Amino acid sequence: MIVPIPAVVPPGRMSRTDQPVFGLANGFELRPWRPDDAKVLADSCQDPDVQQWNRPGHLSLDDAGERITRWEKRWRTEEAAVWAISEPGGGSPVGLIGLGDFDLCGGSAEFLYWLLPAGRGRGVMLEAVVRVSRWALDDLGLHRLRITHSVANAASCRVAQKAGFALEGTMRSALLHSDGWHDEHLHARVQGDAWPG
Ligand SMILES: CC(C)(COP(=O)(O)OP(=O)(O)OC[C@H]1O[C@@H](n2cnc3c(N)ncnc32)[C@H](O)[C@@H]1OP(=O)(O)O)[C@@H](O)C(=O)NCCC(=O)NCCS
Hints:
With 197 residues, the chain is α+β, with helices and mostly antiparallel strands. It has a domain at 22-146: Gcn5-related N-acetyltransferase (GNAT) (Aminopeptidase). The chain is built from 5 helices and 8 strands. The chain has helices at residues 38-44, 48-54, 61-76, 124-140, 154-162, and strands spanning 22-23, 29-32, 81-86, 93-103, 108-115, 144-150, 166-177, 180-190. The protein has an 8-stranded mixed β-sheet, with helices on both faces. α1 (38-44) crosses α3. The longest helix has 17 residues, at 124-140. The radius of gyration is 17 Å and the shape is globular. Residues 49-50, 53-54, 113-115, 120-121, 123-126, 149, 153-156, 158-159 line the site of coenzyme A (COA).
């Protein structure tokens, strides 16, 4: 007799709720992207570090607006969850954090994130990764979350490690950057792993 394996997260659990807003201890906020954030999103592609590590290419203002609309839709279709990291007081975004590559049936997803210079150097991303991980694991019920980054991106590696994402290995020649193929670290957190601090 074949015993069916149930979906780790049943369909509809995510789309039934509105995308939450999370306050961070340092006053920053995680909130859904809004249509009037399109210019910040388009301009973020000009930041040399975002360009180097996140490889967004060029994004016109129209492209950015469409992307924001697509993120809203992907929450409802349970394909992605993407937040703006905004300045204290609901200001404009200084960064992005999200989960993509959703596999609700299998129980996993992968982080994407970046900060503009105005948001860097204050531990904001560490806190944001922990907050979104708690939502994804405790509230949504995923089992495993991944962070992958170029082995040359020391800041991202530190964020992953401090957020309790164990280094599981190195994926050779895994992603093509502007200066050639980079090896990538694979970090992950699974249900039951200890939370930092
Ligand atoms: C990666 C990123 C999110 C980290 O955010 P940040 O605000 O710059 O990070 P913080 O200043 O809080 O530093 C986090 C840790 O990394 C360390 N760190 C920061 N920059 C570093 C660097 N260039 N080299 C080595 N370590 C670095 C910090 O010392 C800190 O560790 P500590 O708390 O033990 O001192 C941000 O730098 C960023 O968005 N960079 C551009 C795009 C990018 O890298 N995206 C990620 C793609 S996977």
